[in-house]
Design brief:
This protein is mostly helical. Helices cover 35% and strands 6% of the residues. It is built from nine helices and four strands. It starts with 41 loop residues before the first strand and ends in a 31-residue tail after the last helix. Pfam families: GST_C_2, GST_N_2.
Length: 317
């Protein structure tokens, strides 16, 4: 999501408020909303810097949808107007033929939406229009609506018998951790920051204990609960610890969560989807109200991600 001015997201009490109005149109098997699942028709647009887009990147990879849902990658540093395709030759997406993601939002009937220009977004290549940017629904629909095109070994990330527990776990983690780091970083008062900070590390302590005796967050398998939490963990030391002042301890100083994060990096190849240079460039060079110089740190050392995680004994892959 494109977020550059903390002040525009701060409530009167100084707390951070995330915009939550997204395009709710869905791409489904039956095409109920006018957009049916169709290989090659849609393009998932992401930034490797964005944790919300990272959920969609991971889900697409895990389900083996690479050949049926193409992916465009925006550069990590957007301007006030839009995420841009500055990584592509000529600064233009080779499939959509546009330099800015905003162009696909503007092409929608009625033009720009209240959500603003956010990633992830799925664009209909036949019209050049954004269909949806609802990051929460996108991953669920990739699991449940694209089943005819998933790989033979695709895991069931949202099993019916675990859905209630997955959503409960995910909602808690979203409120206190995924969005909690933003509530720290964009707090407009000391009181709001202190509250967000305390709640963040209280939840991380709960997760540290929860994962000490189990390999995954819910059940004995990888689920959307893991896919949703992990993008925040992988960015923690590179961005949130320093830039957002979430500095009680680093991920590498939380032994269980650190091992859990390495397990997913290695066992499920989550690491192949990560670009921490993009992450640092985005946070430190885009949020100039927090980091006015725009200087991007050289660290931290990331070699530890390949160290043995030691969690095989907790359960099957």
């Amino acid at each position: 999501m494109a977020e550059t001015k903390a002040g525009s997201y701060v409530a009167q009490d100084g707390s951070y408020e995330r915009k939550t109005r997204y395009i709710e149109t869905r791409i489904t098997r039956d095409g109920e909303d006018g957009f049916a699942v169709e290989p090659g028709r849609y393009r998932l647009v992401v930034s490797r810097a964005c944790p919300w887009a990272h959920r969609a990147i991971l889900t697409r990879m895990l389900l083996g949808l690479d050949d049926v849902l193409s992916m465009g990658v925006c550069g990590p540093v957007h301007d006030q107007d839009s995420w841009t395709f500055d990584l592509d030759p000529g600064g233009v997406d080779p499939v959509l033929g546009i330099p800015k993601l905003k162009d696909a939002y503007d092409a929608r009937p009625g033009g720009m939406t209240e959500s603003g220009v956010t990633v992830p977004a799925i664009v209909d290549t036949t019209t050049g229009q954004v269909v949806t940017n609802d990051f929460h629904q996108i991953v669920k629909d990739l699991v449940t609506e694209w089943t005819d095109h998933q790989g033979a070994t695709a895991p069931d990330l949202w099993p019916e018998d675990l859905r209630v527990e997955i959503e409960k776990m995910s909602d808690l983690n979203y409120r206190e951790v995924n969005n909690g780091v933003y509530r720290c970083g964009f707090a407009g008062s000391q009181e709001a920051y202190d509250d967000a900070y305390d709640r963040l590390f209280a939840r991380l302590a709960v997760l540290e204990e929860h994962l000490a005796s189990r390999r995954y967050l819910v059940g004995d398998q990888l689920t959307l609960a893991d896919v949703r939490l992990w993008p925040t963990l992988v960015r923690f030391d590179a961005a949130y610890h320093g830039h957002f002042k979430c500095n009680l301890r680093k991920l590498t100083e939380m032994p269980v969560l650190w091992a859990y994060a390495r397990d997913l990096w290695q066992t499920w190849d989550f690491g192949s989807t990560v670009d921490l240079e993009h992450v640092k460039a985005h946070y430190y060079a885009t949020h100039l109200d927090i980091n006015p110089t725009g200087i991007v740190p050289k660290g931290p050392d990331t070699s530890g991600w390949e160290e043995p995680h030691g969690r095989d004994s907790l359960g099957p892959r």
